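QUALITY CONTROL LOG
STEP: pairwise intake check
CHECKER ROLE: data steward
CRITERIA: each record must contain a sequence immediately followed by its structure tokens, with no blank fields

ENTRY 1 OF 2
RESULT FIELD BELOW
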Amino acid sequence: MTSAALTGIAFALYLIAAVCYGAALFLRAPAAPANDDLAPRLVSRVGRPLLLAGLFVQFWAIGDWCLTTRHSPFASEYGTLTVSAWAIALTFALLDLRAKVAPVGAIALPVACLVLFWGALHARGPIASSPLLASRIVSLHVLAILASFGLFAVAFGCAALYLVQNRLLKARSVAGVFRRLPPLETLDRVAYQTVAYALPLLTLGLALGVAYAYSGR
């Protein structure tokens, strides 16, 4: 199976998982009390397995592309974007397994899908053959920055939900689906923790880039 086909499968898995995470909000809404227990089961039995399967398939696609082209994934726009999407999905998967903040997936996973779709559009794009890309330092530089972007994407999801819920609480108009959003304290804590990891990774990536630039290689 080609890397393009695997990327398409990963995209479909991410998209269906995003739908599951988003649907969990509505299934848990007070307007549907009979389905209150269905939401966590939908996420645990369908959403998370699909997300983990998508991560595996996309990792397979990236590895297949590297073996086929004998280049680093960062040698093309396609590879860089697919690794970015994988980093976003992986970051949310780890967060979800730890903090159980399913609503964030309704934002983070669509972002990963958009990035992956944009990368798939450039699957036939040019591949850079610069010796620069063969350096481990450069690969670590790009990987650290992309990992930080994945964390920032999850933090963005938490911040967006925080702003929505905070505004609704102040207006005393919280109803329906928004009654089941995570507490403000949880969203604030998760956003803080993800940014706390993202900034050092971004700093490390920039430092590696500067170090390589001044090494004269």
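ENTRY 2 OF 2
RESULT FIELD BELOW
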Amino acid sequence: MKIGSGTTVFLEYDLFNKERELLESTSGDGKIAYIHGEGMMLDALEKELEGQEAGDEFSVELSMAEAFGPRNEQLVVTLPRSEFAELGDIAVGDEFQTHDTNGEPILVAITELTDDEVTVDGNHPYSGMDVTFELKIIEVRETTDEDRESFSAEHHHHDHECGCGHDHGAGDGCGCGHDHGEDHECCGGHSHGEDHECCGGSGSGCCGG
């Protein structure tokens, strides 16, 4: 069966930057899955997957614009550490979901810590990069009701498309994992409970859109 609209696809991938440095791989976690044509994949990558079938192995080069978009330095903000007191222990690399000024969910990562300040970044980790996916199609099948229920439950729990997107808006593709739980659940295991209004402390959400 060939990949087409409404099929469920299982695949493995390695993701490289322009310098051929490995960014992510399914080698440790095994294959990932998505439903083709339902917004779970980067658009440019999905176009290349169309018509492929089980056993196919191929590479897809994506420009920055096709992949995760350009970096936006306005999404990098340094705040007083006191604004994060309610979160308890925090560390560089911790990620949590908050909302931008339009109320849209945005995932931010702590990139720098001092005794007095915390720097957070709302950019996708691979923004500003040209990337290459090396893919292997494992299985293609007609999507069942059970598949849809499973994906729906996963999306509801994680508020996160199938991988590669990190729910940053620029990319919402498949693979790359990084499920971060529901709102304000930090990857370091810190539960954030209520909305944490960061990036200005004005109650307007995090880092802008």
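INTAKE CHECK: passed for both entries
DESCRIPTIVE NOTE, ENTRY 2: Confidence is low (pLDDT under 50) at residues 156-209.
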